[in-house]
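# step 3/5: fold
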Amino acid sequence: MEEHWRGAPELEGANAEEKWVEVESDVYIRVIVWKPKEANGIYDGTVVMVPGWGSLFEGWRPLVSEWVRHRHLVYIETREKASSKITRKISKSDFSIERHSKDIAIVLESLDIEHSSVDWYSSSLGSTVLIDAYQRGVLGGRSSVLLAPNPDFKFPLWSRAIIYSPLPMYAFRRMVGFVAWVVDKRTKEEGQKVRYRRALLSQDVPRMLLSARWNLRYSLPDDLSQIEVPCAVMTASSDTLHDFSKVQNIADSIPDCEMIEVPSNQYAHEPDVLQEIRKFHSSIG
């Protein structure tokens, strides 16, 4: 597990640096920064990526490997992931949506990055965190591509029963393989199956459990009319883990939001998706 969460991946054409940003007392989150070795940027400004719940960098490597050749890119791993360093007792409130957005704001401040210059790219939980933060005015940006945002976290009844059961932690750890098997059966896309299984088997179980318990209580506000960041919501009809109609409703609720449908969720992790992203960036000037 450790090898998935440590080290700055060296990618061709860019210099990499791994940072540990203290976001509150006794809590550090992992941030990876790449800068192109040559001044050959296609666009100015910084790309900030906020991946999904428990997401591993390996799943994003194909896309990031191409992107960092041309853009300054900051990759932020939220605190529920096994990469974060937390040296105090944790509770489910440590993993709230609001706490994640505060962490992201602190990371940008520590890197001296102005919100208004950022082109965001996020997925799943990361997208939900950003939408919530935009609506509350906590974060801003030049543009935001939001892959498969979750309006809520309505897990199936069987998984809710597991999440809330008063089992000892060793029992939860043993259940991870079973959960990975169930997710595998529910997922159509082969690339998505591989990513999710690898991610599930690499998690810090106590953190993920507390995060899940908090997420179950959360839903995005119905009113998203205060969002001023130019947004595009990206999704795939083949993605069975993110309800297409719910994602469409989010896009309809954000002012002047563009809906981008891609061939698959896996496609959004590959270099080819840069065509859609660059087209959106061009459309907003």
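# step 4/5: annotate
The CA atoms of residues 230 and 284 lie 7 Å apart.
# step 5/5: archive (pending)
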